[in-house]
Amino acid sequence: MRATAKAHTNIALIKYWGKRDEQLILPMNNSLSVTLDGFFTETTVHFRDDLETDSFTLNGEEVSGVPFERVTKFLDLFRDYTGKTDLFAKVESINHVPTAAGFASSASGFAALAAAAAKALDLNLSEKELSIFTRQGSGSACRSVYGGFVEWEKGEREDGSDSYAVQIAPQDHWDIRVAAVILTAKEKDVPSRAGMKLTVDTSVFYDGWLKSIDQDLRDIKAGILAKDFEKVGSIAEANCLKMHATTLGAAPPFTYWQDTTLGVMHEVWQLRKDRIPAYFTIDAGPNVKVLYLPEDEEKILARLRSVKGVEDIIVSKVGAGISYK
Ligand code: FM0
Prior knowledge:
The protein has helices at residues 65-82, 105-120, 127-135, 192-202, 206-226, 229-248, 259-273, 297-305; strands spanning 2-14, 19-21, 26-27, 31-48, 55-58, 61-62, 88-96, 149-153, 164-169, 177-183, 278-281, 288-292, 310-316, 323-324. The chain folds into two domains: 2-174, Ribosomal Protein S5, domain 2; 177-316, 2-Layer Sandwich (Alpha-Beta Plaits), CATH 3.30.70.890. The chain is globular, with a radius of gyration of 19 Å. It is built from eight helices and 14 strands. Strand 5 and strand 6 form a beta hairpin. The longest helix is centred in the middle third of the chain and has 21 residues, at 206-226. Helix 5 packs antiparallel against helix 6 (229-248). With 325 residues, the chain is an alpha+beta fold. The protein binds ligand FM0. Ligand FM0 is lined by residues 12, 15-17, 25, 31, 104, 106, 138-140, 192-193, 283-284.
């Protein structure tokens, strides 16, 4: 009753932004992401009859409080599913996602945890079923079940049984790169969970955001299949700007951007004026991810490094789905 699984994080090109059900983590809109090879979590789950409670270590350190509660509540889903309500687990997780990179480690974290738990319990879940479990740990994590290009179908049903991720194109379909640009100046973020709730509840721009999703999804999927970088990049960048616009229309208004965020955005726009194809996307934090093609890597990294306030850049290729040890 012990298994180890590895999952990569992902970056959304069409953002998940807003829930219609907080408990089951059901989204308001479909989203689409690229799985990244540069950032991953490896998790071992060991269910043991002699344990009276779960335990959770992250990078060798015992975790307590809210992060521990999230893990144990997530394992409850597996206890309920199997009827083994007295079975507890030792969870050991190693995170290869530098916290500073501004990637929510929850995506790779919950995908690896779900996969290891399901394998430890010999559940033989399909990828669809695994994605449904994973979604209930953290929404964006359900996309990390797969490698390559992945869409999370929001579904319609109230029980969430049709809200899961599917692969649009495999890892080897297209070699695009993502540079995670890490900034020096940091203020405390509004956590994505709180930010998306405030936006759904109050933003005067939220309806506009939702109305734009179907068209963005149709176009970006066609662009991915045709390997049309300009199309994919421009839709992703515009979609990110629309998501961030919703925060400005919230009450009270807020933004995840800092001075250096804008500095990197302007550098990306300048790159395009200089005919170097690069596009950005930004999640619920100040850091910027830049999409580009392999042949432009050297030029683009040099230009991004020159932006004031850029501390580090971590480059990723398109990554794989869940694997087991
Ligand atoms: O990844 O409340 O998954 O589509 O990263 O745990 O379901 O941490 F930019 C924001 C991530 C949202 C876009 O939200 O939320 C995306 C975001 P949870 P997540």
